[in-house]
Write a structure and sequence with these properties.
The chain is an all-alpha fold. It is built from twelve helices and no strands.
């Protein structure tokens, strides 16, 4: 049961970094459907990290009522502390660091905030990755640190830790396991459920919101991209022992395939959507900021 719940969390996530980069590269951020995909992907991302934190606690304690109530209570208390104390505290610390010449103080402060948040969630029995995610939200919404001051941190991570993470993810895979018919059939089934789940959700949401069929297709394509977020979830599952090498390989392949599906499907759908006057105004406003 715990494995099934964890697998459900792994398949429900969407990768907002992958979605945002895809929309930027395709020039779709200013489109209404692009804005809708980003909004839905952000909410999906938050819910996915919440569920991952709770399920990770269940993995170590087992699926019982007591072990469900505990992580949920810790999570509610943590979110309350973050909202009430975290935001003003992070804003004050970053503003003080911003006064220093150069961006070194801001970068060091941001790293310290991320580490403290990760340690805090680990201390209450939740997943440290979720704490780092909350720290990123606090830094991004504080308004005290500019993008330029955080650029060295972003560039440094992209040039060092990100390649190491992807290399490690690849080393843990066992593609040869797909030679087993049972493993291959399981991979096809999980991939089919992953794709069907996202497009069915887009269809239901789009139908109730009176969207057109091409808008629904674009929404499903964007939400179907799982990318690095699912890789992180898979790595957590492997570390906790809830996933073996075969299931880890299947989840990683699902992340790669669903992410590769997004651009061509988005291109097909958006070509059939007329550009409105409001979208054109939004494009002219956003274009200088995205250069």
């Amino acid at each position: 049961m715990v494995f099934a719940v964890f697998l459900g969390v792994a398949l429900c996530v969407s990768a907002i970094p992958v979605i945002a980069k895809t929309l930027l590269d395709m020039g779709l951020v200013h489109r209404d459907v692009g804005q809708l995909i980003l909004a839905a992907g952000t909410l999906d991302d938050v819910v996915g990290w919440l569920l991952l934190s709770v399920v990770s606690a269940l993995v170590t304690s087992g699926l019982r009522i007591a072990t469900v109530v505990g992580p949920v209570a810790h999570l509610a208390g943590l979110l309350l502390v973050v909202i009430v104390l975290g935001r003003p505290l992070v804003r004050a610390v970053l503003r003080r660091a911003q006064r220093s010449q150069g961006s070194a103080a801001v970068v060091v402060t941001a790293v310290a905030i991320l580490l403290v948040c990760a340690a805090g969630t680990a201390a209450v029995g939740l997943e440290p990755v979720f704490g780092a995610f909350l720290g990123g939200i606090l830094i991004g919404t504080s308004g005290a640190a500019s993008l330029n001051s955080l650029a060295p941190l972003n560039n440094g991570l992209s040039a060092t830790l990100a390649p190491v993470f992807f290399a490690t993810a690849g080393l843990r895979m066992d593609i040869a396991a797909l030679k087993d018919p049972a493993v291959l059939a399981g991979a096809g089934l999980i991939l089919g459920v992953a794709i069907l789940g996202k497009f069915a959700g887009a269809l239901l949401g789009g139908w109730t919101s009176r969207l057109g069929r091409w808008e629904i297709l674009a929404l499903g394509a964007g939400m179907n991209a799982r990318g690095v977020v699912q890789l992180v979830v898979a790595a957590v599952g492997l570390r906790l022992g809830v996933l073996n090498t075969e299931s880890y390989t299947i989840i990683v392949l699902t992340a790669v395939i669903t992410s590769l599906m997004a651009p061509p499907l988005l291109r097909i759908a958006t070509r059939r959507l007329e550009i409105t006057d409001q979208e054109e105004i939004r494009r002219q406003t956003m274009e200088p900021l995205l250069r």
